[in-house]
């Protein structure tokens, strides 16, 4: 089969790879129908490089089951599915760690994601354990299903934050995770949803996604505008989804006293926090949360169930976020374009393997 393999920084190749086969009795082989680019893929491509040079990459996908192991009971050949890309102790043949024993899977000491040390989904086929394979309803198309994982990442953060109906929410960074955070804030009953970014096209997308106000932090001071919009209080919930060292230091000032800040973005750099911002944590008695991955118990978690239900009911719409639909063979070229873009705007980029006609 053909696949995208990452060999080093900005060294992505479309080439032959071994097609997965059933090895273990609980293996499920999936023929991939759609697979999207994650923001973390872009950071690894540009800044970090692969865990294992030459590894088949990617982890946001959907597809159809083509083979199953002898002990698979809940999945059958032909099922339309998505896949939770996270592997924990049980999947890696290790004794369960302290956190897996408590069913706190997002904190697993051995946690890894396909595309890191195990073959990923930028390919024609992929193998996953049965418990990682999630069936999708007939009225949820493959493109939408390929975005169930990033949607679940956002919901995991909101569940940690305990967002409630009527809250005022600030979302910092209006990339794909930020747009999903806006969409979910609306579904969960937020009063105001204030989007912050430095890109006007991203802010326009935020309004389309359901934001009630936008702030371009490159041209105006967010604190004053947030205070005005929230009658001098600040936001109940602040979502940091930009992954910027600058915004990661500033977000504490956007929350009201007793408010909460959740970090979904990863800055991949040192963060220097001025006293003005840091003191907000103490003086305003903020709850500051990290949110990692998209899984809970029972595995893969209610984040996945809620996303699928929202897509099936029409409450959540994600296809409008897709800006590019491309054959998988164009992977190396599009990653380079995104990394070195000048004027071109990218939303969610969706690939389709060569087996899709």
From TrEMBL:
GO terms for MF: oxidoreductase activity; zinc ion binding
Matching Pfam families: ADH_N (PF08240), ADH_zinc_N (PF00107)
Cofactor: Zn(2+)
InterPro entries hit by this protein: ADH-like_C, ADH-like_N, ADH_Zn_CS, GroES-like_sf, NAD(P)-bd_dom_sf, Zn_alcohol_dh
Keyword list, A-Z: Metal-binding, Oxidoreductase, Zinc
Residues covered by the Alcohol dehydrogenase-like N-terminal domain: 25-138
Every Alcohol dehydrogenase-like C-terminal domain range: 177-295
Protein family membership: Belongs to the zinc-containing alcohol dehydrogenase family.
Name listed for the protein in its UniProt record: Galactitol-1-phosphate 5-dehydrogenase
Organism this protein belongs to: Vagococcus allomyrinae
């Amino acid at each position: 089969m053909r696949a995208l393999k990452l060999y080093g920084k900005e060294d992505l190749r479309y080439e032959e790879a071994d097609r997965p086969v059933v090895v273990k009795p609980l293996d499920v082989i999936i023929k991939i129908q759609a697979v999207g680019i994650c923001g973390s893929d872009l950071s690894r491509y540009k800044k970090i490089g692969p865990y294992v040079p030459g590894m088949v990459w990617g982890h946001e996908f959907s597809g159809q089951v083509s083979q199953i192991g002898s002990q698979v009971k809940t999945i059958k050949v032909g099922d339309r599915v998505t896949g939770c890309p996270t592997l924990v102790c049980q999947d890696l043949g290790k004794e369960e760690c302290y956190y897996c024993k408590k069913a706190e899977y997002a904190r697993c000491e051995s946690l890894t994601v396909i595309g890191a040390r195990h073959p990923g989904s930028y390919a024609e086929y992929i193998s996953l354990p049965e418990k990682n394979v999630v069936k999708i309803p007939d009225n949820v198309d493959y493109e939408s299903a390929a975005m169930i994982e990033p949607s679940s990442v956002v919901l995991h953060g909101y569940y940690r934050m305990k967002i409630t109906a009527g809250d005022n929410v600030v979302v910092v960074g209006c990339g794909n995770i930020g747009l999903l955070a806006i969409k979910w804030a609306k579904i969960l009953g937020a009063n105001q949803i204030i989007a912050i970014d430095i890109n006007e096209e991203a802010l326009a997308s935020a309004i389309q996604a359901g934001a009630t106000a936008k702030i371009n932090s490159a041209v105006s001071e967010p604190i004053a505008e947030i205070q005005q919009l929230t009658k001098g209080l600040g936001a109940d919930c602040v979502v940091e989804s930009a992954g910027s060292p600058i915004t990661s230091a500033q977000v504490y000032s956007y929350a009201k006293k007793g408010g909460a800040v959740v970090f979904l973005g990863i800055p991949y750099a040192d963060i220097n926090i001025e006293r003005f911002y840091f003191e907000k944590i103490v003086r305003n008695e903020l709850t500051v949360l990290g949110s990692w991955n998209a899984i809970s118990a029972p595995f893969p978690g209610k984040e996945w169930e809620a996303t699928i239900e929202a897509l099936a009911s029409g409450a959540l719409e994600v296809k409008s976020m897709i800006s590019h639909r491309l054959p998988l063979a164009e992977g190396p070229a599009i990653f380079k374009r995104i990394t070195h873009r000048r004027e071109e705007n990218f939303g969610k980029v969706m690939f389709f393997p060569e087996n899709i006609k």
